[in-house]
Each structure stands twice: as C-alpha cells, then as structure tokens.
Amino acid sequence: MRKAFIGSLLLSTLCVGCSSPSEEALNGSSGQTTGETQNNAAPNIEHIQVDSKSLGREMAVDVYLPPGYAENQQYPVLYMLHGYGGNASTWFDWLDLDGAADRLINEGKLKPIIIVSPDIARSFGINSIPGQGVNQGDVDEGLYETYLNEELVAYMDSHYRTNASRENRYIGGFSMGGYAALYLAMAHSEDYSKAGGHSAALWDYTGTDLYTGQRDWLYPTEELRQLRDPILMASNKPLPEQELEVYLDAGDSDDLAEKDEKLYDALKAGGYKVEWHLSDGGHDINYWSSQLDNYLLFYAKAR
How far apart are alpha carbons 84 and 26 in whole angstroms? Predict the structure, then answer.
C-alpha cells in the first residue's frame, strides 16, 4: 500500500531542493530522514553500516544479493545512487529494483549481479568543504566522493563476492544520484566501465535552470564548474583510454530532459559510447519504475 501511495505522487519538479510532497516521494515516507532504512525489504537485501573515516560516521547501505548468491562465485557490482531526499532504501523499497532484478535473472536475461544502494544524503556525491560554496541549508557537505569511490568500493570488494575489475563495476542513479553517478564515473573512469544518468540533475545556465542555489553551491567558481559539470567535463576532459559506456534517459515531460540531451550531445561529440532515451513520463517514481528493466539490462544484460 505504501509503495502504491508513494508511486502515485508525481514529482513534477527537479526535487533536488524541494521540501514538499515531491521530496517525500523521493524519500519514501513523509517522516523518514536521510540515513534511516526501512526493515521491510526482501530477504536478499542486507542492511549494513559502513564506517567512513572520511565522513567521520557510519553510513547506511542496502545490498542486494542475487538469487543463488554463492561464496564460490564472483559477481559484477552495480552502485545505484538515490535522488535528493532519498536514502539507502529508496531503490529497493520504493522503486522495487530488487524485484526487477530477481525477475530478469530468473528469466535468464540479466547476469546475477550485486546491487549496492548507499545513503549519499544531499551531497551530490562530491567532496565539498564548508565555505567553498554558499550552503543555504539544503545540501550536505563532506568528503562524499572519497567515501563512495574509495571506502565503499573497498568495503564491498573485501566483504562480498564482487568481481573487483573495472569491467564489472558500474554506477548509476536518478536525479541528484544521476548527477553523482555521471560525475564519479567521468572523474574516475579507471574505476567504472558503465554509468547511467537517469533524469540526471544537470544545469546549462539558461533561464530554465531549477534550484539555482544548489547549482551555485555545486559550481561556486568557474574552476570548480570545469571540474564538476558533466557537460563541460565531456567537452574538455580527454576521452578515457578505457571506454566508458553511458546511458542517459528522461521522461518527455521532465524539465531536465533538455539538459540531459545536451550532455548526450557533448558526450557524443567527445567520442564517448553513449545512449539517449526519451520516453513517456515526468520526473517521478512512476517514470523510473517503468524503466527498471532497461536500466538493469544496460548494466548487466546476459549475453
């Protein structure tokens, strides 16, 4: 009932800075705060806490283990990052990514895969320090990039049966998490072979930009924008020696679609192997839920 209720709430705006029913839909419930996880996940979801020295606290992580998970096998691993206001449980409890993965694996369409859903708070997945940009109280600052790309990956590779090669490590996310996944994959292309930006939170400095306070916190100087903006990174950063495959998508009524398509154009011009998919829908849970099969098959389709 709760999933059906939340799924019916349409997120008609970016939801990277709103405190409204839309934010509640991304978060999973009106009373849930970042870092909390629900205890109603399927048996193949493990709720763990990862000690982060870079952030100075334990961080909640939900881990999906595929049917038949065995100690004598190694599995590709997919890191999926939530949107603004979400937490470690969002992909599984509210989007049912685990259910889609179970079904596709049982049908023989998807490789058995470990899926990791970490709490990234409202950080955009970057390393930030107080005072670097103007924080209006709607973002979380800290060394999240170090946590995600170094500490979390190392923890997963040492505690689970992951195939720790770049070729078998993927990262994706929706909205704020879509930005974070794209940024991390492009900044650390030696660590990921595939990246997905699903309705990714991007800005192009036109009059249609939303939540410009967060944009200006993320890009407080031109130098940092060059280093953090995926559109500029695609244009100015040399193409990785190892191929990075990118999947971009958005709903046709999503205000972010034009921003995401600009990134597609920049990546294509930069020589990346990139896909762009525009489908019916908005910036909401209903849209992302309808695309789960497409996402999973991009990352780990059975050959």
Answer: 7
State residue 19's pLDDT score: 34
How many C-beta neighbours within 10 Å does residue 280 have?
A: 10
- Nearest to 156, CA basis, from 82, 46, 244: 46
**Single-letter amino acid, residue 65:** L
Are the C-beta atoms of residues 16 and 176 closer than 8 Å to each other? yes
Alpha carbon distance 239, 241 (integer Å): 6
Q: Give the residue carrying structure tokens 């849970």.
A: 285
Phi, psi angle pair for 265, to nearest 5° = -60, -40
Host H or E run for residue 170? strand 169-174
Alpha-carbon span 191 to 167, nearest angstrom? 8
The whole-number pLDDT of residue 20 equals: 32
Backbone angles phi, psi at 195, to 5 degrees: -140, 145
SS3 60: strand
pLDDT at 18 over 60: no
41-74 pLDDT, tens digit each:
456 999 999 999 999 999 999 999 999 999 899 9
List the beta strands (DSSP E) in the chain: 45-52, 57-64, 77-81, 114-118, 169-174, 194-198, 245-251, 273-279
Residues 6+ apart with CB under 8 A from 303: none
